[in-house]
UniProtKB/TrEMBL annotation:
<dbReference type="InterPro" id="IPR043429">
    <property type="entry name" value="ArtM/GltK/GlnP/TcyL/YhdX-like"/>
</dbReference>
<keyword id="KW-0472">Membrane</keyword>
<dbReference type="Pfam" id="PF00528">
    <property type="entry name" value="BPD_transp_1"/>
</dbReference>
<keyword id="KW-1133">Transmembrane helix</keyword>
<keyword id="KW-0029">Amino-acid transport</keyword>
<comment type="function">
    <text>Part of the binding-protein-dependent transport system for glutamine; probably responsible for the translocation of the substrate across the membrane.</text>
</comment>
<comment type="similarity">
    <text>Belongs to the binding-protein-dependent transport system permease family. HisMQ subfamily.</text>
</comment>
<keyword id="KW-1003">Cell membrane</keyword>
<dbReference type="InterPro" id="IPR010065">
    <property type="entry name" value="AA_ABC_transptr_permease_3TM"/>
</dbReference>
<keyword id="KW-0813">Transport</keyword>
<dbReference type="InterPro" id="IPR000515">
    <property type="entry name" value="MetI-like"/>
</dbReference>
<protein>
    <recommendedName>
        <fullName>Putative glutamine transport system permease protein GlnP</fullName>
    </recommendedName>
</protein>
<feature type="domain" description="ABC transmembrane type-1">
    <location>
        <begin position="23"/>
        <end position="212"/>
    </location>
</feature>
<dbReference type="InterPro" id="IPR035906">
    <property type="entry name" value="MetI-like_sf"/>
</dbReference>
<feature type="transmembrane region" description="Helical">
    <location>
        <begin position="193"/>
        <end position="215"/>
    </location>
</feature>
<dbReference type="GO" id="GO:0043190">
    <property type="term" value="C:ATP-binding cassette (ABC) transporter complex"/>
</dbReference>
<keyword id="KW-0812">Transmembrane</keyword>
Length: 223
């Protein structure tokens, strides 16, 4: 059956000025959250391989909770649930950044753990034999090698986090999807607008992938 649908390129390109307004919010939430998540990931990733159970178990619990629950539930809990505890509203942008930070932090923790444990134990023994302390051995020998191996999975996590921001329209954050929804409400051109939203997300993630490949190649070349 002929639906009579014709793609309206005018509506698609006409939505761009409105959609572009959402890109700064998408990038701010993504990279702001990832920056915090990277710090969280280093801390909890190292704690998760600590021999002290009192340090290892809480770190493992955090990782499992945030990896085992949907990020949409997490941001809803932060935005709607936490105000009941703190006694005041939480800004939607703050809630989005916090959700990305906590969620990505859990995944980055596993990346850090895997990266560190992938380094041969002989590297540590070599550092100690040179008279270095365990801390000096770790940060001077183990960590630089582990960090190079972490680049691909960290890049993948960055791309996932960028796409996760599309869920935050439910709390009113003015990112790409939210801007698209507002525009659709007045123009009724859902197909064209969401098509452009998808293209903009694709442009962002492909650009990031390209940059990560360059960084990865330079890292390999410097070894």
């Amino acid at each position: 059956m002929d639906s009579g649908f014709t793609f309206d390129w005018g509506a698609a390109f006409g939505s761009l000025p409105y959609l572009i307004k959402g890109i700064p919010y998408t990038l701010l939430i993504s990279f702001g959250g990832l920056a915090i998540g990277f710090v969280i990931g280093i801390i909890f990733g190292l704690l998760s391989i600590n021999k002290n159970r009192l340090l290892r178990w809480p770190a493992t619990a955090y990782i499992e909770v945030f990896r085992g629950t949907p990020i949409l539930v997490q941001v809803l809990f932060i935005f709607y649930g936490l105000p009941d505890i703190v006694g005041g509203p939480i800004n939607a942008l703050t809630a989005g950044i916090a959700a990305i930070a906590l969620n990505s932090g859990a995944y980055i923790s596993e990346v850090v753990r895997g990266g560190v444990q992938s380094i041969d134990s002989g590297q540590s023994e070599a550092g100690l034999s040179l008279g270095l302390t365990r801390n000096q051995t770790f940060w001077s020998i183990i960590w630089p090698q582990a960090l190079r191996r972490m680049i691909p999975p960290l890049g993948n996590q960055a791309i996932v986090s960028i796409k996760d921001t599309s869920l935050f329209s439910v709390i009113g954050v003015g990112e790409l999807v939210r801007q698209g929804q507002v525009y659709i409400a007045t123009t009724f051109t859902a197909f064209e607008v969401y098509f452009m939203v998808a293209l903009l997300y694709l442009a962002i993630t492909l650009t990031l992938s390209l940059l990560l490949r360059i960084v990865e190649r330079r890292g390999i070349a410097s070894t």
